[in-house]
Amino acid sequence: MNEIRQYLNFPTLSAHIAAVAESDIEWNSFPGSVIHGVLGFELKRMSCVTPDGICRNCCLSSACPYGLIFESPLPPNAQRMKLYPQMPHPIRIVVHPWDRIALVKGQSFDVRITLVGKATAFCLLVLLALDKGFSEGIGKKIGSRRGIAKITTVADIFNNGIRRPWNQLKEKYINSLKAVLLKDHSLTDAGNLVIDFLSPTKIITDSRQNYYPEARDLLSTLIRRISNLAHFYGGLSPELDFAGMLDSAEALKTEVEFKKIPAQRYSSRQKKAIDIEGIVGTITIYDCPPEIGSIFKAGQFLGIGKGTTMGFGDYKLRLEQ
């Protein structure tokens, strides 16, 4: 268990933002994708100091808030992910409800933003960028302009979840939202682990999309994601018996109830809508040991599968003794 705690020994911060539509909002794609684009645009506008705004030409791209969080360039001489141009992004944005195609004036919605490693230091700037994006307009144009929203409260998910009015928080932010080490939120008991997948989840197994993943498939995906985050943003390279853990997970009895569900996101880079199909539903892992359960608990905050940055692969878990 001590090895697992060291594996999860990196800072994470998670904010729960309550917002309300001040005019009608029509999502033109998956809401998390929309918020991701709006937040990135505003954060770059706040952070960028170069005349041309091109990150690949900037020596500060790995240090500025936008460059670190949204570009995440691979460090020189990186020993991991050598075939990729970027590290995994140290941010995750989840919007609830994700499946409501439009909001009318006065309706509320929630945004959860999770930051990892060095990115936790930029939490206030991220929130200010989100606030600015909401006031500038989000979603599809209705008539001549986009919908407007307002942040009402912000809560620290890891530290008691106490809600604070946003107007007060942005005026006096010091020590309001604090990063924690995921190791301090590990599971210590074995039991039946019930995982409810709340947003479309796209799991890839052996290069193919897996619509009926078992415990081993899910654990393998999580280990890969968490290992990369721990390495690049926590400076960790833990030596764990991952192969043995996967073998143990394969032997666990499970009960699954999944269904396919479609979603769509708009890619600003590709300038087109992209259809995405994932799964929602429940998996019960019987007699799940705490070592494996702790990794699943970390994934509850970090997400699982493809598109986690935009809110895909969102799940909640509960342990039944």
Structural description of this entry:
- It is built from 8 helices and 16 strands.
- Helix content is 28%, strand content 33%.
- It is globular.
- The protein has helices spanning 2-7, 31-47, 65-71, 123-136, 166-169, 215-234, 242-250, 290-302, and strands at 11-21, 25-26, 91-96, 102-103, 108-116, 138-142, 145-147, 149-156, 163-165, 180-181, 191-201, 203-205, 208-210, 254-267, 272-288, 315-320.
- The chain is an alpha+beta fold and 321 residues long.
- The strands form 5 sheets. Strands 1, 3, 5, 8, 9 and 10 form a 6-stranded antiparallel β-sheet that branches.
- Strand 12 and strand 13 form a beta hairpin.
List its traits.
8 helices, globular, six-stranded antiparallel β-sheet, four-stranded antiparallel β-sheet, alpha+beta, 321 residues
